[in-house]
């Protein structure tokens, strides 16, 4: 049902935010609002929306920057909703990782139709991946950014793929936070000292049946993380 869907709306125009909130609430969606790119990234990480409506022209991080950063942490559907309706910006939006694009001004019915279609496609993709995998134990597909774990297939963001790739290169070996950071980010060292921990939390939510009691992504306090394959067939 629509009410189960949580939509993050990102626009620096308060009037547009109000309009979209009223429109989506009326249709049964839960709405999260963000007035700028930084707030959008925090909301996407903390609230885990089902889809994102994203403006392009914003101060600070514009919509393209936000989309690029979002794609490092999530595959959630992103629909650009913007006054920049020319072909060049359409191509840039889709290249950055957007799933759809609608130009302002728009008809509310068109926006709702595109949003529902995008959510349906995402839902079918998730349903398909739950059924995939067969009897393979742990298999990583770099090209498709998929981890097949027993009978489940998990889609990974580019950075998540690099983390899992390192851990699976030597199952059971404990990799320090510093080693993971160097492997994934190289010389572009992140300023957030808890970034690796945050990635592990996200990966556990994707991979583990019970993220609070992980079977595969394990850690040794004060030393680092390792991938435990002993329970895999």
In order across it, which strands form the biggest sheet? 2-1-3-4-5
Give start-end ranges of low-pLDDT stretches. Answer: 124-136
* CATH superfamily descriptor of the largest domain: Response regulator
Quickly give the CATH architecture of the largest domain: 3-Layer(aba) Sandwich
Overall 3D form: elongated
Instruction: Give me the count of strands.
Output: 10
Any idea how many domains? Answer: 2
CATH class of the largest domain: Alpha Beta
- For the termini, the CA-CA separation is 36 Å
Helix and strand run: EHEHEHEHEHEEEHHHEE
If you consult CATH, what is the topology of the largest domain? Rossmann fold
Could you give the topology of this structure?
Layout: E1 6-10, H1 14-26, E2 30-34, H2 37-47, E3 51-54, H3 63-70, E4 78-82, H4 87-96, E5 100-103, H5 108-131, E6 138-141, E7 146-149, E8 152-155, H6 158-169, H7 177-185, H8 195-207, E9 217-220, E10 224-227
Parallel strand pairs: 1-2, 1-3, 3-4, 4-5
Antiparallel strand pairs: 6-7, 7-8, 9-10
Helix pairs in contact: 2-3, 6-7
What does this structure look like?
This protein starts with 5 loop residues before the first strand and ends in a 6-residue tail after the last strand. It folds into two domains: 129 residues, Rossmann fold, CATH 3.40.50.2300; 96 residues, Arc Repressor Mutant, subunit A. Strand 7 and strand 8 form a beta hairpin. With 233 residues, the chain is α/β, with parallel strands linked by helices. The chain contains eight helices and ten strands. It is elongated, with a radius of gyration of 19 Å.
């Amino acid at each position: 049902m629509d009410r189960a869907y949580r939509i993050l709306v990102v626009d620096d125009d308060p009037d547009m935010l109000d309009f979209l909130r009223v429109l989506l609430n009326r249709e049964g969606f839960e709405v999260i609002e963000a007035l700028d790119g930084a707030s959008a990234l925090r909301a996407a990480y903390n609230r885990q929306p089902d889809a994102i409506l994203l403006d392009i022209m914003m101060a600070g991080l514009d919509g393209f920057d936000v989309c690029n950063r979002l794609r490092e942490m999530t595959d959630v559907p992103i629909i650009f909703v913007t006054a920049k309706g020319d072909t060049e910006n359409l191509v840039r939006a889709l290249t950055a990782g957007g799933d759809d694009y609608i130009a302002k001004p728009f008809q509310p019915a068109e926006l709702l139709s595109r949003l529902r279609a995008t959510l349906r496609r995402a839902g079918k993709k998730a349903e398909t991946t739950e059924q995939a995998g067969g009897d393979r134990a742990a298999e990583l597909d770099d090209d498709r950014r998929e981890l097949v774990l027993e009978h489940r297939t998990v889609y990974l963001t580019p950075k998540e793929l690099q983390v899992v790739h390192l851990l699976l290169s030597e199952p059971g070996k404990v990799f320090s936070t510093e080693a993971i950071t160097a492997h994934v980010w190289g010389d572009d060292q992140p300023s957030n000292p808890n970034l690796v921990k945050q990635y592990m939390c996200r990966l556990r939510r994707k991979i583990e049946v019970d993220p609070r009691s992980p079977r595969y992504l394990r850690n040794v306090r004060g030393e680092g993380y390792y991938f435990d394959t002993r329970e895999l067939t």
